[in-house]
Amino acid sequence: MKTQRSQDLKWGHLPISREPAQIMHIDLNSAFAMTEQQARPSLRGKPLGMTNRISKNCCIIAASYEAKNRGVKVGMGLIEARQLVPELVLLETDPPKYLYVHQKLANIMKSYSPNVKMRSIDEGLIDFHGTRNIVNPRPLHEIALGIKARLKSELGHWIKVNIGIGQNRFLAKTAASLHKPDGLDTIDHTNLMEIYDSLELTDLPGIARHYKARLNSVDIFTPLDFLNASADTLRRLVFHGIVGDEWYQRLRGYEVDDEPTRLGQVGRQFALDKRTNKDEELLPRFHYLCETTGKKLRYNGADARSIVVWAGLATGERWHAKRTYKESFYTDKEIYARALKLFQARPRHTNLTIMGITCYNLTPTTRNQPSLFEEVNKQEWLTEAVDELNQRYGNFVIHSLNTLKGKHIVKQKIPFTGTKYLDLLFKDS
Amino acid sequence: MNFIEINDRVEVITRFASHGDPAYMIMPVKMRWGKKEIAFTELGLRHPTTKGQRMVHVFDMSDGANDYRLEFDAEMLTWKLVTIIEGES
C-alpha cells in the first residue's frame, strides 16, 4: 500500500484518499480557563486570563472564550490584554487541577481503543483502526457524542470539547477546529474540497506566518491552491525537501504523522522576573533550572554528553555557549558544574531577560554499572537517594541550599507540546 | 473579584451518594468556619493531588455568591478552607 503510494507520489498522481475516517482528535479548547470556570462558578461567563506567575510583565498563556472573543490572545502581555478588556480576571495556573482533567480525558479515550496518543495536556487522538467490528461498531459520530457526555458527567457540565474525525491526524485536527468551543465535525473525501474552500491557509494546523509566506511566493494563496499544487512544487520550491512530499500526502488524507518521536534533548528555561546580570540574583534561579533538567534527564532514563547554556540579553541579542564531553553525565552536581562553567562566560555588559539550559546527545543511562572509582559511586548513590526521598515526600523536599530562592521564584510551567513529564512535574507544583 | 487566603481548619458535613454522576458522588454540603455557617449550592470540581505521599482532595465549592477552595487531607482526615473568592455583589 505504502509502495503504491510512493509510486503515485513520484509520478504526481496521488488521488484523494477514500479510506473511511477513523482518527478522532479531541481537544479541550481553552482548557485551563474552562477548567477554572468549571471549578469556580463565579468565573463563568467572565473574560478570564491564565498566567504562570502574576506580575506586571506576565503574559497570558490561556484565555477563556469570553476573553478571546474580545481580542485577548495567547502570548499577549498583561498590559495589552487589560487595555482590550479592563475587567479581565487574571489567575495563576493550578497544574494539579489540569493534570486531573487530562487524566480523566485520557482514561475515557483509552476505553475505546488501545491506540490513544495524548499530544499535549489538553488534546489527544484515538485511532479506531482495528476496533470497529467488535469493540466500537457504532458510528464514530455517536461515539464522539458519548465522549462529550461522559466528560460532562465525570468533570462537570461546563466542560466542552471539540472533536474532529478524519482520515489522518491532520484532517482530524483540522475538523476539531471548525466549530469551537463545542464542535463535532468529520472531514473525509466527500467534503474535503468544500472544507478547504472555506478555510484560510493559516487555519490549517502546521501552517503559520512563515510557511504561509513561502506558499504565497509560489502563488499558493488558499488551501485549495495548496491541494492542487504538485508534489514537485511543494518539495522543490516550498519546503525544500521531503516535508513537501509529506504535505502533498497529508492534504489528501494519507497518514504521515504516525512516526514515533525520539527524545533528542531535555532542558528548562526561565523568563527572568527582573532584568539583571548579578550572580547573586541569577545563580539560585540558574541552579534550580539545572536541578529540574537533571530530574527530567533521570526520569527519561537518559545520560547526556553535551550541554548548551543560553540567554536573551536586554539589547535584544542572544548568547549561547555549548560543550560536548567525552564522558556522559546525569547527576545534578555534574550538570550544574558543567553549566555554571559555561554560564560564567556570559556577556556582562547588559542585563539578561531570559536564560536556559539544554542537555543533548542523549544515550540510555549507564548508571546501574558501578564505577571503579569510589567518589563517582558516592555521587551516584547520593543522587539516587535524593530522588527517592523526593519521590516519597514531594519534589524538591531535598535540594541544594543554593536553589532555595530559585525554587520559590521559578514556577513549574505547564508543558504544552508533550505529556511525558506531566506526572513528574506536577507533583506538588 | 477578591481572592482571600484563609488556610483555617473547618468543620464540614459531607454527602456521599450511592449513585449518580461520578463528578458529584461526594459533595460537601455545609461548612462551619468560626461562627459562620455556609451552605454549599454547587460543587465546581473535585480533584486529587498529593503532598509528598499524602493524598489531598481539593473541592472547589460555591454557595451561590462566593467560591471556596476546600482541602480534605485523606491521611489526617481534616478539612481546611484554603481560599475564598468573593463574587460580585
Task: Give Rg of chain B in angstroms.
Answer: 13 Å
Radius of gyration of chain A: 24 Å
In what range is the share of β-strand residues of chain B? over 45%
Average the pLDDT over all residues of chain A and give the rounded result: 87
CATH topology of the largest domain in chain A: Alpha-Beta Plaits
* Relevant CATH superfamily of the largest domain in chain A: Reverse transcriptase/Diguanylate cyclase domain
Distance between the termini of chain A: 48 Å
Largest sheet of chain B: 5 strands, antiparallel
Instruction: Please indicate the count of domains of chain A.
Output: 3
Which spans of chain A have pLDDT < 50 for at least 5 consecutive residues? Answer: none
Q: What coarse outline of chain A follows from CA principal-axis ratios?
A: globular
Give the beta-strand count of chain B. 8
- Mean pLDDT of chain B, as a whole number? 92
At CATH level 2, the architecture of the largest domain in chain A is 2-Layer Sandwich
Number of domains of chain B: 1
Please mark out the parts of chain B with pLDDT under 50 across 5 or more consecutive residues, or reply none.
none
In helices, the fraction of residues of chain B equals under 10%
How many helices of chain A? The count is: 17
Along the chain, the helix and strand elements of chain B come as: EEEEEEEE
Task: Give a short summary of the structure.
The complex is a heterodimer of chains A (429) and B (89). Chain A is of the alpha+beta class.
List the helices and strands and how they pair.
The complex is a heterodimer of chains A (429) and B (89).
Chain A: H1 2-11, E1 23-27, H2 31-39, E2 48-51, E3 62-63, H3 65-68, H4 78-84, E4 89-92, H5 95-110, E5 116-120, E6 123-127, H6 140-155, E7 162-166, H7 169-176, E8 184-187, H8 192-197, H9 209-216, H10 223-228, H11 231-238, H12 242-251, E9 265-276, H13 279-299, E10 302-313, E11 318-329, H14 332-343, E12 352-360, E13 363-364, H15 374-393, H16 404-409, H17 422-425
Parallel strand pairs in A: 2-4, 7-8
Antiparallel strand pairs in A: 1-6, 1-7, 2-3, 5-6, 9-12, 10-11, 10-12, 10-13
Helix pairs in contact in A: 5-6, 11-12, 13-14
Chain B: E1 2-9, E2 11-16, E3 26-33, E4 36-39, E5 42-51, E6 54-62, E7 67-73, E8 78-86
Antiparallel strand pairs in B: 1-8, 2-3, 3-4, 5-6, 6-7, 7-8
